[in-house]
Specification:
By secondary structure, the protein is an alpha+beta fold.
């Protein structure tokens, strides 16, 4: 039994950084309305819902369906975590009698954990507070700065004014933000509103990230699962379709950064020496407006790769992930890229959660596209 929680408010919850937060009604309504449509594509055999649609009674029923003995006085005490180093993004608890209950979420944060605990999900099935803190730390935009040579951390008005002397147009980003929030477009000088926003954001989130304003012609993403033993990677490896040929999805299993990326459709065997495991799910091509995701475009991996020459930057990203993220994170992540009018490609951000690109990619496979 797998319970999949759709919590599109995740980015906002990370920005708040606390367990007691009431997300916007629009986000809650979206989760309730479309949980099955979104998460069900990735996990078709799971129970997919919003956390706000779960009740203690429903949770009890779901857990009992995982073959928990009816005589158990305390289900939480009877659960045994099977992985001594639980993977971020999901935790597997298995009973001695063979029953399995797994819980995964669109993205893990303190709010969704708090809500699940309130509804009776045992703590053994959820990430620890330390693991949640790691996810939040990684999601801070400063994490990806090594892949963004011309972006800068800004800590003061003076620093930003110095950057404006060298370049006129910038985008200022709050380190924890999403859905188009936490962005300010600066042209030539800082307005009074810009100054106030910058100071407040620095006080709350340590800095702001200054990114040169670019002439972007396409938004694409690299979609991964870190760890071959995660639920999503197992689901991808097990999935098969006569329309997709005999080879499973692209998988990149590296002992160390290799300097080259696997070809689409290529699969390397799992290393017995404990090497890095990154499952490359594929590319996604999507549209945005003022930093807000709009929709995905139905292009195959081969179309996207050949149209935008992505292999060089994909190789660089995978080397960096292997060295810096693999030791700290297991679970889904998406790397958003900006393709500019001059042909240059830049890393925009990394999302340490499921993404709509993953959903679109899986839906295309279901529809029979050869990816």
């Amino acid at each position: 039994m797998t319970i999949c929680i759709f919590n599109p408010e995740h980015d906002l919850c990370l920005a708040k950084g606390r367990a007691h937060y009431v997300p916007p009604r629009s986000a809650v309504d979206f989760a309730r309305r479309d949980a099955q449509a979104v998460m069900g594509v990735l996990y078709p055999d799971a129970v997919c819902c919003s956390v706000y649609d779960l009740s203690s009674a429903v949770v009890g029923t779901l857990l009992s369906q995982a073959q928990a003995p009816a005589s158990s006085p305390n289900l939480g005490e009877q659960l045994m975590v099977t992985n001594s180093s639980p993977k971020l993004g999901e935790v597997d608890a298995r009973r001695a009698d063979g029953g399995v209950c797994r819980v995964t979420a669109w993205g893990w944060d303190a709010v969704v954990k708090h809500e699940l605990l309130k509804r009776g999900i045992p703590a053994a099935l959820l990430p620890s507070d330390d693991e949640l803190a790691t996810i939040r730390t990684l999601q801070h935009r400063s994490t990806v700065l090594p892949l963004q040579e011309d972006c800068r951390e800004v800590h003061s008005i003076e620093e930003m004014e110095s950057l404006l002397c060298a370049r006129e147009h910038w985008v200022l980003k709050a380190p924890w933000s999403g859905a188009g929030r936490g962005l300010r477009f600066v042209h030539g000088s800082l307005t009074a509103i810009d100054r106030d926003w910058l100071l407040k954001t620095v006080a709350a989130q340590r800095c702001v990230i200054a990114e040169p304003r670019r002439d972007v012609v396409a938004d694409v993403a690299l979609e991964y699962v870190m760890g071959g033993d995660t639920l999503l990677s197992q689901r991808q490896a097990a999935a098969s379709s006569p329309n997709l040929g005999e080879q499973p999805d692209s998988v990149c299993l590296l002992q160390k950064p290799s300097g080259s990326s696997p070809k689409l459709g290529e699969v390397d065997a799992r290393r017995a020496d404990g090497g890095v495991c990154m499952n490359f799910l594929g590319y996604s091509y999507f549209k945005t407006g003022s930093g807000v995701y709009k929709e995905n475009i139905a292009w195959s991996d081969e179309q996207i790769e050949s149209s935008f020459s992505l292999l060089p930057i994909r190789t660089r990203v995978e080397q960096w992930l292997a060295e810096n993220i693999w030791p700290r994170y297991r679970g889904p992540l998406g790397v958003d890229l900006m393709v500019c009018v001059d042909g240059s490609i830049h890393v925009a951000e990394i999302n340490f959660r499921h993404t709509m690109g993953m959903v679109a990619h899986e839906r295309l496979k279901v529809m029979g596209y050869r990816l």
